[in-house]
Batch of 4 targets.
Target 1
Amino acid sequence: MSTVEYKFTYEVVDSPAGLKADDAALLKKAQEVTVNAYAPYSHFRVGAAARLTNGQIVTGTNQENASFPAGICAERTLLSTAASLYPGVPIETLAVSYNSENGPSDHPISPCGVCRQSLQEFEQRTGHPIRVLLSGLTGDIYIISQSTQLLPFAFTNDELK
Ligand code: THU
């Protein structure tokens, strides 16, 4: 028997002042677009903003539905928008933030399991890692160098070949 360790490292900065200017602007965009979320059920507004390798900025927000499973997270809204507007263009960096009516937005949230799976496939199909910035409206900012680090043992289309 052997034991295998899985670990990854990420960076933490305590304010946007610790980010490069383009990353700080991207995070600000993710925070700003939370107003566009449609979240009448959870009152949890998520905003995502991505910088593509062609320099374009794409955003997404969560869009809920009275039939709860029909709702879609901000990250997957963004991925669909990016792939529709700029097919084949990789995402360089993705920022995610939120604004909750139920509590403070002072710590990072991270993508749900379904979104991690979708991020994995987006990385794979574009052949490019997606850097991820996670933060509330205030507080620490996590910088993760590749979204697939959030999904060890991912099921991928390699298995379907
Ligand atoms: N949500 C996102 O949009 N992204 C996440 O990373 C976590 C959760 C949304 C789904 C739902 O509309 C609301 O937040 C509460 O779960």
Target 2
Amino acid sequence: MDRNIKTVLLSEEEIHNRVAELGKQITQRYVGEDIVCIGVLKGCFIFMADLVRCIDLPAAIDFMVISSYGNGTSSGDITVKKDLSRSIEGKHVLIVEDILDSGHTLTFLKQYLAARNPASIEVAVLLNKPSRRQYPVTAEYIGFEIENEFVVGYGLDYAELYRNLPYIGILAPEAYAS
Ligand code: PRP
């Protein structure tokens, strides 16, 4: 285990099993339909790759990059750095995010995409931190509800590191204390 990880919160196996369940749920929800999966980079990249392989539907894949500015948290204004490459008008959209925290990103994104008249918008998140919510938004498909811990791995970073850990770990305080 990485020496900066205090505890493994979710093992590879737990994540693998839960992602497969989410994929089945999503497949059943949209049976007979096509979907567009929209990943929000960078945090989504591993979850998205695993999830879409558990969805048994015709699925187009697209990505967005968005940034928040402000007081160092995600409560500032949001800017779209990379937009979709195709129209989503009339399509069933599934937003794929690694973590739902304050809800600011998702609130922005749902409004932003709704303006393009998709047939529907639903959201899949691997991790949900309900105790951190500042905006009244939720996801239809949630991998795990977690406490307010500093989690990294499986796509989630601290200072751009740890995204490649195959599990979700809690970062040791000495790894981010300066
Ligand atoms: C994270 C995560 C979500 C957002 C959630 O992205 O991927 O997009 O924060 O936080 P919120 O609910 O408070 O808006 P981050 O800005 O860390 O970028 P990254 O995906 O590149 O790691």
Target 3
Amino acid sequence: MDIYSHPTFDMALRQFELVADYLAIPEGERAWIKYPKRALTVACPVRMDDGSTRVFAGYRVQHHFALGPTKGGLRYHPEVTLGEVAALALWMSWKCALVGLPFGGAKGGISVDPGALSPGELERLTRRYTQELAAFIGPQTDIPAPDVGTNEQTMAWIMDTYSSYAGHPVPAVVTGKPVHLGGSLGRREATGRGVAYLAGRAMDTLGLETPGATAVVQGFGNVGAVAAQSLVKQGFHVIAVSDVHGGLHHPQGLDLRKLEAWFAQHRTLVGFPEAEPISNADLLTLPCAVLVPAAMERQITAENAGKLRCRVLAEGANGPTTPEADLILNQRGDVFVVPDILCNAGGVVVSYFEWVQDLQSFFWSEGEVMDKLFRSLESAFQNTLSLARKQHLPLRTAALSLGIKRVWEAKKSRGLFP
Ligand code: NAD
């Protein structure tokens, strides 16, 4: 399946093979489990504000349907490729299975810099992409959600376009939409809050005190900014944060409220006067209790894994740590890794709640949503920790094993058709 060739897809396959060896999945059954069921590439012509027409490449990969419809985010980023999207779809599958959701994994993306398009251009691009995908998505087929470069507004446009074709409102076609359109209370914050919750649980497990402990967050978007706020609420001092343009460091702790006000006004962290600038590379190796990569894949590599000075690595991003870096961290043994498919699962858990609420047209309070979210994350954390301890496995292998085993068993029970 050369069509998926990409370093991030290779990374997802290497993780899979390691776990397949551990689970003793027969060689003959592996391709059936790992390769996506369906992948679509679409050309999206868009009329630009200056009257010209540009064509953007869009993708959607649906990994498997053994447990239910597929579910996964939609990414707008200049470096999006089919292989990257496929890797993210695989991780969504293992994640949904780990936390017990009735979904297979999916992911979508458009190769575009959303910051370079006007709101009108973005809307036309999103609607065109949705129209191209209309036959392949739906509440019982595949349900997109926000990811890097997309947000509630993007989901609202998808819902509106899809509903126009259906001839009636179909809120359950997407999650992460505005609450007034059938979105769930707590969805916007779910991933970041979940990351902070699990970082706190990792600290408890290590016997470390949270109040006054330090945290560093790479990425200041939906996941990173909310994780930083939630960590502060738990008593952490967030001493450094960053976005794609660079980072900020304050050894005594950043004033996040002032920083957010600055960010809201300038749309970048750069230039904030009450902290020192720091590069993204240096930020990752700052001494701290908790490091949260919450930006892109492959940030922790063989080059910097030996230099990390955190006790807990709470992976907010998908795929932030390469297999080579994993080997180094496993050998070191002094970094408690909360792996991505567990650590950032809060987003898809509340997306599932949103889908359920939409299908029932019966909505829950934020307290109910959060209570169910933390119970779900706690149970996945306990299951992962207990398997890791019993079998002397790294937490990533344990989490992936639980997810992959469930998908494998579902596929075997359903059998091959015809
Ligand atoms: P976002 O677009 O809201 O924010 C991304 C942030 O990362 C921005 O601050 C951006 O400036 C920064 N960034 C981009 N490239 C960077 C780089 N090379 N170095 C440093 N910073 C960089 O995206 P998001 O929704 O917060 O997603 C972040 C990560 O979390 C992604 O890996 C995504 O797949 C994952 N994730 C998101 C959700 C969700 O609910 N949104 C759920 C699970 C996982």
Target 4
Amino acid sequence: MSTQSDTGKKVTVRRLAEMKRAKEKIACLTAYDASFAQILEKSGVDVVLVGDSLGMVIQGEETTLPVSVEDMLYHTQCVARGLNKSLLITDMPFLSFTTVDEAVLNAGLFMKQGGAHMVKLEGGADQAETVAALSRNGIPVCAHLGLQPQYVHKIGGYLVQGREQAAADKMLDDALTLQHAGADMMLLECVPEVLASKITEALDIPVIGIGASADCDGQILVLYDILDISLGLRPKFSKNFMASANSIEEAIQHYVSAVEQGEFPAAEHVFK
Ligand code: KIV
């Protein structure tokens, strides 16, 4: 199993598509600063996400909603300085893409001033027009389906999505629509295992899971959860990789290898 650190080559959208075709698992993690970014890259992490989870794990907020474009830009710049090879994704924060023009402007900032290679945005088929505009302007997009934490007040909690047949059918339709609109990657959060597996099979673009399925093309977790330093409870879909490691670097290497070997997620990290 080869990682980007073995080959020394930059991880690109082409490389990720190739990994999906070759059934090589994609290891992804969040990071918010240069030092951790450097360790992640050295440990073989293919994709580094500056997640708006920084609102919770860095800023100590209760939700991701207060995170601003300026916060995301600052942390993207920090992470970019720690990376040479891994692909860098920046989350579009809450209400930073309410119109197509606003989305292009803010995503453009993350790419031009931040050094991001892709942006991630929450939302279903209703975001297809935005995804198409970003894509047309040369901005790769990771669409985020399933549990969308920016909708926490609308949903009424951090709940598994797509359990009812109608919701499951809609999620598959949304995924196909977003791919058709130009999305280069899909992230599925807190989705029943069977549905996540079905969406992964149906899409040509790589599908990354978090609380989804081991069948996804790759996995992502919040760095502070795997290092067991998050505020509050660690979610069911995460795992403390520090428990059996002697250093942060070793914990991250164990995570990468568990993803690559298909050992993570195990049954206890996914939803029926
Ligand atoms: O903000 C974040 O950390 C995320 C997770 C799904 C990885 O979007």
